[in-house]
Amino acid sequence: MQRRIKAKNKTSRYIEILTDFGWKYYFGREENKINLINFLNRLLEGEHVIADLHYANVEEGGEHSGERKVVFDLRCIGEGGKHFLVEMQLQNQDFFFDRAVTYTSRTISRLAKKGADGNGYELPPVYFVAVLGFQLDKANYEKYYYSAKIVDQFDNELLYDKLSYKMLVLPNFNKSLTNLSTIMDQWMYLMKHLNENEELPNYLDKRIFSRIFEVGEVANLSPAEQMAYISSIDRKRDYNNTIAYAKKEAMAEGERKKALETALNLKNMDMPFDKIAKATGLSVEEIELLK
Fold first, then answer.
1. Could you tell me the end-to-end alpha-carbon distance of the chain, in angstroms, rounded to an integer?
2. Which of 33, 139, 172, 284 is the most exposed place for a label (fewest CB within 10 A)?
3. Cβ(266)–Cβ(276) below 8 Å
4. What pLDDT sits at residue 5?
5. Residue among 168, 163, 134, 149 at smallest CA distance from 40
6. pLDDT (tens digit per residue) in 29-66
7. Of the ranges 114-123, 130-139, 249-258, which is most confident?
8. Residue 22 CB contacts under 8 Å (≥ 6 apart), including other chains
9. Residues 62, 243: Cα–Cα separation, whole Å
């Protein structure tokens, strides 16, 4: 096998996809457009085939001057006017579905023809695609692919096929190398593990992924691009460190709360304070104040 794992203390050879810089570098540049086309075609396999697309303005203003702007990671238009909103979101967000609906609604509102030309109400298809670094549903920790359209809730009949939501949940994707049965499996595995490779590995389809490895070397970036990439990496690490610290604090707070509850129960049972302190790790002074 060609695959060689980098040493932990060695800088990754390839630009990480799951950074703001990496996402736009691999998928948002005209010269790398084939990566986005390949990715979307696998995601939409059986529904639609993209022959070509062009990038559109990522900002969407509101109907009124004071209305907040929507800024997409990537917005692309395919043949026939099909719109693709492509997002990479690593930070956990409450109401993520609300955000997805807001983004698509704003786009649809702008696409709707006005005046006499709008009498037919015909709209082009809109696809919202998101790659997520957090779980949408913590109780459903094995589901890594969500695909939604407007369907009848009683018989699942498709009512409207021009609005689609596709979401990939990377934390839930834990397939091994020997179990990558589809190209989409390979995409998800690569997104999580690109920085562990020193060259294009045998487990990836070369026809699809060769461009990633051709253009993705950090050494090929200009000095300005390298600085932008480093800043993107730093922001990602800062976020990860903040989340790790918050989890540690929450765990410590939960353990202390449990210790206080146990100490109070033992105190109400008239156990000597020194024994309660030994059992819970609290000080005698803390135990004396418990009520």
1. 65
2. 139
3. yes
4. 37
5. 168
6. 999 999 999 999 999 998 889 999 999 988 766 555 55
7. 130-139
8. 15, 16, 229, 232
9. 33
Total residues found in the chain within this entry: 291
Q: In what order do the strands lie in the sheet with 74-78?
A: 53-55, 74-78, 83-89, 126-132, 158-169, 145-151
Take residue 67 and report the two structure tokens written for it: 């209305």
Q: Judge whether 143 and 172 are in contact, CB under 8 Å.
A: yes
- What pTM does this model have? 0.78
Distance CA 145, CA 187 (A): 13
Residues 6+ apart with CB under 8 A from 144: 168, 169, 170, 172, 173, 188
Residues 6+ apart with CB under 8 A from 288: 273
What's the pLDDT tens digit per position in 18-29? 999 999 999 999
